[in-house]
Every structure is written in structure tokens, then in C-alpha cells.
Amino acid sequence: MNAEKSELNNALSLQQEQGIKQFLTFIMADEEYGVDILTVQEIRSWEEITELPNSPDFVKGVINLRGTIVPIIDLRLRFGLSSAEYGSLTVVIVVKIEFEQGSKIMGIAVDAVSDVYSIAEQDAKAVPSLSESNSCEYVAGLVNVGEKMIALIDLQKTMNI
């Protein structure tokens, strides 16, 4: 617990002092995506969930997380990617997202967790507009890390159901 607080304090310190954010990255359909590590509450292995009737396809259901009912979103389906079988590498990243109405705890199902990167805000590039309807509305920016490109996710837009 103290190690988690120390890591959180280090992340906050880096953001304030140098404009550097830390991102937890994960894999979906052989591509790497990232979310601000300060939104991540915990990472859980895949478990059975309770399905909700009449919910959108990408809302897989809910889990009970220590007394809190947490909706689980399949990010592959939310992004319009092909669905995949849930397996031993599938994880749920539990995030806390701030909305105008207040904060919400939600889970996102992804293929696998990858790494944590420290990224300077000025290194993130805007997503090029491909058409009049912005099909990349869930991506806040793109950043190169070594030889790979990571799409940084805008969780507020992605999770606003």
C-alpha cells in the first residue's frame, strides 16, 4: 500500500514539475494504447461478470468490487475492433474517471497490460483528421516510444455512455 502511494506521489510530482505524465499501456488487436496512470485504480484478472439486459454490446456487464458495482466495458467493441475470446492474459483495468456529474469507477477489458511510460505532454501529437466525422474521437493523442506508436485514450469520451 505504501509503495502504491509512493508511486502515485512520484507520478504527481513529475506531472507538476516537468509536464511529464505516466501512462499505463495495454494491448488490443496487436496495437498499444495508453491511459493516464493517475486514473488507474487497479488491474484485475478476468473474472465472471453479471450481464445486464438491454445494454450496448460493448458493456459486458458488472462486477462487485468490494461493495462497489463496477460496469465492465470491452474496449475492443467500443473501438469497433473485432471481438476476442477472454483468456488468461485478458485483464480488467479499473479506472476512476471525472465527469461533470462527478467521478465514476469503471472497468475496461483489454487483451493484456504492457508497460508504464513517462511521456512529456509536448511529445504527444494530434490525431490527423481522416474525414468530417472524427472516427478517432476516443484518441487524445499519439506518441512514439522507441519504434512503436502508442494511442493515448481520452477516457472521458470513451466511457461516456
UniProtKB/TrEMBL annotation:
Principal subcellular localisation of the protein: cytoplasm
Keyword list, A-Z: Cytoplasm
Organism expressing this protein natively: Pseudoalteromonas carrageenovora IAM 12662
Pfam family, one: CheW
GO biological process: chemotaxis; signal transduction
Boundaries of every CheW-like domain copy: 20-161
Family matches, as SUPFAM superfamilies: CheW-like (SSF50341)
Taxonomy of the source species: Bacteria, Pseudomonadati, Pseudomonadota, Gammaproteobacteria, Alteromonadales
UniProt-recorded name of the protein: Chemotaxis protein CheW
SMART domains: CheW
Signal peptide extent: none
Domain of life: Bacteria
Locations listed in the record: Cytoplasm
GO cellular component terms, A-Z: cytosol
